[in-house]
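This part of the workshop introduces the protein records we will be handling. To make this concrete, we reproduce a full record directly below.
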Amino acid sequence: MYRLLTTFFSFLIFQPLFAQEYVDMSSSNSGTFELQSNIKGEALAPVGSPFLNENWESGTIDLADGKIMEIEQMNFNSHKGVICYKKNNVVYNSSKDLDVTKFNIGNQLFLSHTVDGEKIYLQVLVQGDKMKLLKQSFTDFIPGTPSKGYVGAEPPKYVAKANFYVQPDGENPRLIKAKKKEILKVLSDKEDEIKDFISTNSLNIKEERGLMQVFDYYNLISGDKG
């Protein structure tokens, strides 16, 4: 297995696999960037960000050929669904030619999966041999509206959203809705225990934290150490 650092040499090797699309418009690493192609013609700066994380962190990218890229400033472009990294205040998006199996950003783990014929990256929220809880992060871009008389202009917006998936042992991930009825159906072999756990702890499984607690508990009572 090879490990490749993002030195000048390895940067030259992998640069063709990334496309420059962003220029850092701030003097900090806050993650506030302007997407030139999407905000062309917009009078106001966009609200929100196309990036998953506010802060850029070090991470690794595992490729299908066994190579591992180690990157100092890494993020995920949830608007385009691609990995990105920053070098010299310029952000590069990965191309489709980058054959990724998994990647890490700080403590976040993402796995590459093909769902309905489309390659997507799913973040592991709950790890377990019996049942995994995964999340697909995506961001919609809403164009701004110009000023109309007394009504002021509205800036363009990036709106963060998410889909949740479950992956039982030996199966492919499948999309679920964060609803009690569906969760109990997915975890039907422990339905009574899960129902009591939700009620006792007053969990809101429409929220990510509550959903994670339910799946952590399911793996625990199923004898799965994760």
User: Anything to note?
Assistant: Residues 208-221 form the longest helix (14 residues). The chain has a mean pLDDT of 82. The two ends are 25 Å apart (CA to CA).
